Amino acid sequence: MEPQVAELKQKIEDTLCPFGFEVYPFQVAWYNALLPSAFHLPLPGPTLAFVVLSTPSMFDRAFKPFLQTCHLRPLRDPVDQCVAYHMGRVRENLPDLHVQIIADYEVHPNRRPKILVQTAAHVAGAAYYYQRQDVEADPWGTQHISGVCMHPRFGGWFAIRGVMLLPGMEVPDLLPTTPPDCVPTRADRITLLEGFNFHWRDWTYRDVVTPKECYSEEQKTYFSTPPAQRWALLGLALPSEELSPTSSELPLPTPIPKSQNPSKVQDWFNPRLSPTAPPAL
Question: Helices 3-16 and 78-93 meet at what angle, rounded to 10?
Answer without folding.
Answer: 130
